[in-house]
Amino acid sequence: MVLPYIVGAGVLCAAVCFMGEFLVKPGIHHKMFGIRLLLIHLSIFYFLYGLMLLFTGRIVFSAAVTVLVYFILIVINNAKYLSLREPLVFSDYDYFTDAFRFPRLYFPFLGVTGILGIIMAAAIIILGFCIDSSYVDRFGDPVAAATIIGGEFLCLLILFLLRDIKKQNTFCIRTDIDNMGFAVFLWSYFLAYLDKPQVKSPFEMSGEENEKQERNNRADDSDIAVQPNLIAIQSESFFDPRKWNANIREDILRDFDEICSESVSFGKMEVPAWGANTIRTEFSFLTGISPEDMKGHRFSPYQISSTRWPVASFVNMLKRKGYHTVCIHPYYSGFYHRDVIFRKWEFDEFLDIRSFGDAERFGPYVADSAIANKLMELCDEWNGRQPLFVFMITMENHGPLNLESITESECQKYFKEPVSFHDYKDLAVYLRHLANENSMLKTLKDNFEKKNYPVSMVFYGDHVPILPKAYELMGEPEGRVPYFIWNSSSSHKGERVDSIEQKKTDTVVSSLAVRWLNRFKK
């Protein structure tokens, strides 16, 4: 009788996967554990096992592959958690496809061990398929067919009836994964991912407002010509490490400090990303939408933004005001679906890696100085023609930093007192890029102060860098990043603020654009 073997293998598969959850980082306690969670967990894995069985007809192989794939997910989750302090979420599926589209950006983080592990897992799957003799005729045997297909429908029915599990989501990842367990957590976030966000950007304008703005533009073309150029710089992995490690030389960001002292506003800002996931910060800045309002899409907001979901950014608003809008980013425009989304947001141009063919590199990526030169050329080109908005996304400081080389003598020059080269090499590489960023900002400031057109510039870091060895030695830095708002026409001492809202509550990057656009006229 084949029925007990089919059902038994599926139940055993789910049981082994449940035991595997105790390997998940951070530790899981299944605080919501009960019959509902047990049924959902069993249905998820029995369904996946049954699907594999329908394709292959091999009982042992199907159960083993289901378990193996789940354990691979656990390994990936643990690696992500160690680097980014965040477990795997459903929307991370995009990174699996991006890893093959943009291998240079992802494979170095896997390392030789990770790549060999993937190859070994694939080899085990192929070998297992070849040697497994537990074949069942799932199409010719009516009992086997009814057992497998009936089990699949039963699992789907249970998952459908218990779909309100998504109402338990707090979207605090550590809380939810601790409450539900890894598999049910992923399923619950998948259900939340199916719902479109019920939020609008504060920059969204009605049809009547658009028409009014366009009439105003036509009525006074001369006013449009003298509007300031608006420059937004999103700096890769930029944060100020000097308070985190008092041994770092103060003058490494000397020019950055000077600009801050002359800015309209500067201080620290909370961002929804840590170590990676630039688009979380980027989306909030451009749209003014907080991560909390994005619910299940907060972890990868560009996925839903690249669909027909209507979401505006302040770039749309600037277009109505007569601005020529440009994004400069020395990487592929298709990464994160930016090419699709930025067209929706009415960027006139996207100068991606193709515009930097012969540009200077520093490390693996285009140097910050090269991007700055492109920006200054663009501003001069459009001077007197049309006000310009440029969104510049730097790339030089992108990791993995541990793969870059640096001499011991160069390493020591970034610190007040001698340090262990072995322990501080990666941090020194980061500080070298930080010094380049400081020089870039000085170049831009000096250039814009000499021009006959006004410029308002906002600058901020997207997240702190990935520096596991340094964090192990000194502890992790706070997640806040620096920002400033600087106007070429009104350089004066700015008031330091530790909150964009000038409140004691945490600041979110979604407030920055509103603050900037309200201040550039001053």
Walk me through the structure.
- The protein has 522 residues and is of the alpha/beta class.
- It has 2 domains: 3-193, no CATH class; 207-519, 3-Layer(aba) Sandwich (Alkaline Phosphatase, subunit A), CATH 3.40.720.10.
- 51% of the residues lie in helices and 9% in strands.
- It has 20 helices and 10 strands.
- The strands form 2 sheets. The chain has an 8-stranded mixed beta sheet, sandwiched between helices. A two-stranded antiparallel sheet has the order 5-6.
- Strand 5 (361-362) and strand 6 form a beta hairpin.
- Helix 1 (3-20) runs parallel beside helix 3 (59-84).
- It is elongated and about 85 Å long.
- Residues 491-495 and 499-506 have low confidence and may be disordered.
- One of its GO terms (cellular component) is plasma membrane.
- It is a multi-pass membrane protein.
Task: Identify the notable features of this structure and list them briefly.
two-stranded antiparallel sheet, Alkaline Phosphatase, subunit A, alpha/beta, eight-stranded mixed sheet, elongated, about 50% helix, about 525 residues
Short description:
By secondary structure, the chain is of the alpha/beta class. The chain has 20 helices and 10 strands.
Helix and strand topology:
Elements (H helix, E strand, L loop, with lengths): L2 H18 L14 H22 L2 H26 L8 H9 L1 H29 L10 H20 L11 H8 L1 H12 L13 H13 L1 H5 L3 E7 L18 H8 L3 E5 L8 H10 L13 H5 L8 H7 L3 E5 L9 H7 L4 E3 L9 E2 L2 E2 L1 H15 L5 E6 L14 H5 L8 H30 L4 E7 L6 H7 L6 E7 L7 E3 L14 H8 L3
Parallel strand pairs: 1-7, 1-8, 2-10, 3-4, 3-7
Antiparallel strand pairs: 2-9, 5-6, 8-9
